[in-house]
Amino acid sequence: MARSLEGFLVLIVAALIYSSAVASVFQPISDSHRSVALELFTPLEGSFSSLAETYEALRTFEVLGIDKKTDINTAACQSVLETLGSSSSALKDLFYALKVNGILKCEIKKDVFEGVTSRLQATVSSAGALLDFYYSVGGLVIIKDQTSKDDLYLADAEGVFGSIKALSQSDGRWRYNSNNPESSTFAAGLALEALAAVVSLSSSEIDQSLIGATKNDILKLFDSIEKYDDGAFYFDEKLVDAHEHQGPLSTTSSVVRGLTVFAAVTSGSLNLPSAKILGLARFLLGIGIPGDAKDLFNQVDSLASLESNSVSIPLILLLPATVLSLTKKDSVKVKVNTVLGSNAPPLTVKLVGVFRSGSKDTSLVEGQELKFNPESAVYALDALPKSVDVGKYTFVFEMVLHDPDHSYLYATGGQTQIPIFVTGLVKVDSAEIAVLDSDLGSTETKKIDLTGENTVSLSANHLQKLRLSFQLSTSLGHAFKPHQAILKLTHESKVEHSFVVGSSGKHFEINLDFLGLVEKFFYLSGKYNVQLTVGDAVMENSFLKAIGHLDLDLPEPPEKAAQPPPQLLDQKLRYGPKAEITHIFRVPEKLPPKELSHAFLGLTLLPLLGFLIGLLHLGVNLKNFPSSSVPAMFAVLFHLGIAAVLLLYALFWLKWDLFTTLKALGFLGAFLMFVGHRILSHLASISSKLKSA
Amino acid sequence: MGRATSKDAQALIHSLRSAYAATPSSLKIIDLYVGFAVFSAIIQVVYMAIVGSFPFNSFLSGVLSCIGTAVLAVCLRIQVNKENKEFKDLPSEHAFADFVLCNLVLHLVIMNFLG
C-alpha cells in the first residue's frame, strides 16, 4: 500500500513534467500488419533478389505468425545450399544464408557446416572492419546454435572483443573501421550484436572490465537519444552519410537489437531507465504500418526483440474505442498488452483523472480502479463517470503491477494519456424567429419546431430586423457551444449569405438588421430561403434545417451598386478553363527600307568627293611641308596624331564607353598638343622669318 | 526693267567671280571645306525629311557636326584673313591650332551623342 502510494506520488511528479505532452494512441501489432506483410514481401518469380531480403521476409513472417509458403521456402533453401556450399561466396551472403537457415532449417550436411565454420574462423582472426567482425562472429553463433556444437569456440575471444571495442567512440557510437573517423549509431547496434556473439562464443569468462566498459558505452549511447512530444524515444544519425543514410527507424531498430542481444548474454542489469525503453516501443509502434518492406522488417524485428528482453519489457495500454456515446451508455474499456499483442502480467489499471481537452484544471473524477475481466482480458469501468458531459477529454490511466519484482522487468511508463470523445444528444428548444420593427417591437413572432417538418413564411422590408433565437443544452443541463451555428439566407437567384449565430451560455441569438445589410444583399428583393445549421463532432443530433421563407422588400439599387457575383449554373464550370490572355508586345519602330538608307549613305559621301576634287582643282600642294628631318618627323607625327584621335572616336562609337575613351584621349591629346606645338611654332617661326626678310 | 535687272544680276555675278579669284588660295580651301560641310548637312536633312526622324539624336548629331565644323572653319577664315585688321597680330598657325582643337572637342561630343 505504502509502496504503491509513494510510487503514485512519484508518478504524479512525472506527470507534471510531462503535462504538456500531446497524447497519442499506440496500437500493438495486429492483423493489418500481417496482410501488409504478405503484400510487401511478395517475391518476383518465386524467389527474392538477395539472401538479405529473403531473411527479412522470412523473419517478418516468423514474428507475425504467418504460415510459411512452401514455394518460397524451397527456393530459399536452394539458394542457401548454393551459398554455403560455394567457397567463393561473400561474407555477407554466408551470414544471411545462415540466418535464413536458422528460420527454415533446411537439410544441410555436416561437412558444409565444417567448411563454413573454418572459413568464418579464418575471417575472424584476420578481420579489421566492424562489418567483417559482425558477419563472421554472427555466423559462427548461428552455426553453434543450429548444430548444437558446444565445442565451437573462438580462438582468442577476449582479443576479438577488444578489437571490436577499440572501434568505439567516447559518445557511445562506433566507427566502421579504424581508417574512417566517422562514427554512427547504427554501427553501435551492429557492434553490440557482434560483442554479444563473441561472449557466447568464448570458452571462458570475458574480463568483467571489458563488459563493464561496454555497458558504459550503452549508457552513453542512450544519452544521445531523441524524443518526440508524445513520449516516443528514438535514435537518429547526426550526419548524412554519402551512401545509405540510415533513417531513425533502421538506426533505432539496430540499437534495440544489439541492446537486447547483449543484455541477454551478460549478467547484471544495465541500469537503463524503463521510460526510455517504453519510449522506444512507442516510437516503433507509433509508425503504424510502414509501406516499405525494409521498414516493416525493422519494425517487426525490433518489436520482437523488445517483446521478451532482459532489460525491461514495455507494456502498452490502449483503448479499443476512443469515442464513447452517452446515449448508448458506453463504458470505458482498456486493454494492456505487450508490443506484439500478448498478455501482460497481472496488474491493476487505475483511472487517475479526466481532464477537459485544452485545460489542465482539476480532474473531473476521483481516481478509480478498473475492473478486470479475465476472459476477455479487458479492464472496464462500469459506467462513465457522472460528471462527464459531451465534449473532448483526456483520460489519464496508470498501470500498477501486482508483483513488486515485476517493476524491474516491465516498463509501464507511469501515466498514459488517451484522448477520448464523449458524444451525446444536445437538446434544442425554445426556437423562435421574429420580424421586428425598429421601435415598435415585433410584428410577428413564430415559434419554430426544429425537429419537425413545418416551415414558416415571413415577410419584411428593409427597415425591419430579423431575429432568430434558440437554446442548446446537454443532457446534463450544461451550456453547449457547437462548432457550427450558421444561419443562411438564399435568394431565388441562388445568391447566398451566411451569418454566424452568437451565443451567451445556453442562449443563441442572431439579429439581422436589414437596413445595414441592403448593400450586402445587392439590393435583391424577393423570396429568401432561410436555413439553420447547428453541428459539432460530439453532437449526435447535428442538423441542417430549412426553417422557411422570408419575403424581403429592399429598395431599388442605385446606379453604381455592386452587382451580385454571377452564379454558375453548373458547379463544374467554376473549375473550367478561363479565357486565354493574349499579350500585346511593343510594336517595333518602322525603319526605312535598306536600299534607301544605303543610297543616302552613298549620297553623303558625295560632298567629300566634291571637296577633294575641288582641292585638286585649286592646285593644293605639299610644298610647305618641312624638308629637314626633325620638323618633318614632327609634322608626320602631328598628322598621325590627328588620325589617331579620329580612330579613337570611331572606336568610341563602335564599342568603347566614355571613360575609356577619355582616358585614351587624355594621353593622345597630350601627345598631340606637344607635337602640334612643336610643328606649328616651327612653321610660325619660318613664316615670321619670311615676313621680316 | 526686267532686262536691266537680269543684266545687272549678270554683271554682279561676274564681278563677284573676278573678285573671288583674287582671294588667296588658303582662303579658297577653307571656303571649299565650308561648302562641303553645309552640303553634307543638307543631304542629311533631306534624308530625315524622307524617312522621318526616328533616331532623332543621330540626326541631330550628324547635322550639328556638319554645321559646327562649318562654323569653326568660318572662324578660322576670319582669323587667317590678312585683310582683317582685328586679327593682324594673331599668327595663323595659332588660329589653325585652335581650329583643330575645337574640332576634336566638337567631334568627341558628337560621337557621344550619336548613340
Automatic annotation (TrEMBL), chain A:
Transmembrane listed as a keyword: yes
InterPro entries per UniProt: Ribophorin_II_2nd (IPR055375), Ribophorin_II_3rd (IPR055374), Ribophorin_II_C (IPR056790), Ribophorin_II_N (IPR055373), Swp1 (IPR008814)
Transmembrane segments: 599-620, 632-652, 658-680
Topology within the bilayer: Multi-pass membrane protein
UniProt subcellular location: Endoplasmic reticulum membrane
Species assigned in the record: Salix suchowensis
Main location: endoplasmic reticulum
Family (UniProt): Belongs to the SWP1 family.
Assigned keywords, A-Z: Endoplasmic reticulum, Membrane, Signal, Transmembrane, Transmembrane helix
Residue ranges occupied by any Ribophorin II third domain in the UniProt entry: 430-552
Described purpose of this protein according to its UniProt entry: Subunit of the oligosaccharyl transferase (OST) complex that catalyzes the initial transfer of a defined glycan (Glc(3)Man(9)GlcNAc(2) in eukaryotes) from the lipid carrier dolichol-pyrophosphate to an asparagine residue within an Asn-X-Ser/Thr consensus motif in nascent polypeptide chains, the first step in protein N-glycosylation. N-glycosylation occurs cotranslationally and the complex associates with the Sec61 complex at the channel-forming translocon complex that mediates protein translocation across the endoplasmic reticulum (ER). All subunits are required for a maximal enzyme activity.
First and last residue of the signal peptide: 1-23
Domain annotation Ribophorin II N-terminal: ranges: 29-307
Occurrences of domain Ribophorin II C-terminal (ranges): 585-684
Pfam families linked to this entry: Ribophorin_II (PF05817), Ribophorin_II_2nd (PF23861), Ribophorin_II_3rd (PF23860), Ribophorin_II_C (PF25147)
Top-level taxon in the UniProt lineage: Eukaryota
Residues annotated as domain Ribophorin II second: 316-422
Pathways per UniProt: Protein modification; protein glycosylation
Assembly and interaction partners: Component of the oligosaccharyltransferase (OST) complex.
Name this polypeptide is given: Dolichyl-diphosphooligosaccharide--protein glycosyltransferase subunit 2
From TrEMBL, chain B:
Compartments, record wording: Endoplasmic reticulum membrane
Location (main, coarse): endoplasmic reticulum
The protein's annotated pathway: Protein modification; protein glycosylation
Keywords of the record: Apoptosis, Endoplasmic reticulum, Membrane, Transmembrane, Transmembrane helix
Pfam families: DAD
Chaperone among keywords: no
UniProt xrefs under InterPro entries: DAD/Ost2
Keyword Membrane: yes
Topology class, membrane: Multi-pass membrane protein
Superkingdom of origin organism: Eukaryota
Parts of the chain that traverse the membrane: 32-50, 56-76, 96-114
Role according to the record: Subunit of the oligosaccharyl transferase (OST) complex that catalyzes the initial transfer of a defined glycan (Glc(3)Man(9)GlcNAc(2) in eukaryotes) from the lipid carrier dolichol-pyrophosphate to an asparagine residue within an Asn-X-Ser/Thr consensus motif in nascent polypeptide chains, the first step in protein N-glycosylation. N-glycosylation occurs cotranslationally and the complex associates with the Sec61 complex at the channel-forming translocon complex that mediates protein translocation across the endoplasmic reticulum (ER). All subunits are required for a maximal enzyme activity.
Subunit relationships: Component of the oligosaccharyltransferase (OST) complex.
Family designation: Belongs to the DAD/OST2 family.
Name under which the protein is recorded: Dolichyl-diphosphooligosaccharide--protein glycosyltransferase subunit DAD1
